[in-house]
Amino acid sequence: MVDLMKRALELAKEALVAQEVPVGCVFTDGENIVAESRNCVNLTRNPTRHAEINCIDTVIDYCKTNNVNYKELFRKITVYATVEPCIMCAAALNDLHVKEVVYGCANDRFGGKTVVDVSNYYEHNYTLTGDLMADEAMALLKQFYKGVNPNAPEPKVKKKKDNE
């Protein structure tokens, strides 16, 4: 388990170098890695390109190419993510009936358990475990947020009117 989270952390470090939010993710079937990815939102200019969604796409492509039933494969998958999956990713993983999700640090801004417990809205389909190598995952996030995201939109500041 630790080795798989270490791999996810390596992917998160790649994301950090690429000026992406440093999240890495590994999908496994037993001990076999079936997909791995990192965030690539800025690169693709697509806000849905989270590490988990990229892994989902990889698994679906593999299943289509190899005539494998993706529903059966997802039921065997354990997800290792450096950060608690956001609401979007948690819902997608739940809908696909993955077996288990193991994450590093909590996501107190967008988390699918911490902020909005997705399982309160959907039938809960996977086991959720957190706090595996959380300090390492949090350190990467802190390093990212110390800098400035060059791809973030300019903040919209309300200007005062002349007569105010």
Overview of this protein structure:
- With 164 residues, the chain is of the alpha/beta class.
- 38% of the residues lie in helices and 18% in strands.
- The chain has helices at residues 2-17, 41-44, 51-66, 70-74, 87-95, 134-146; strands spanning 24-29, 32-38, 77-83, 100-105, 127-129.
- It has a five-stranded mixed sheet.
- The longest helix is centred in the N-terminal third of the chain and has 16 residues, at 2-17.
- The radius of gyration is 17 Å and the shape is globular.
- The mean pLDDT is 90.
| Coarse shape | globular
Q: Helix segment count?
A: 6
Let me know the number of strands.
5
Report, as a whole number of angstroms, the end-to-end distance. Answer: 60 Å
Overall mean pLDDT score? 90
**Percent helix among the residues?**
25-40%
Trace the largest sheet across and list its strands.
2-1-3-4-5
- Taking pLDDT < 50 over at least 5 consecutive residues as the criterion, the unreliable ranges are none
What is the makeup of the main sheet?
Answer: 5 strands, mixed
Beta-strand percent range:
15-25%
Radius of gyration: 17 Å
Q: What is the SS-derived class?
A: alpha/beta
Topology as a string of helices (H) and strands (E): HEEHHHEHEEH
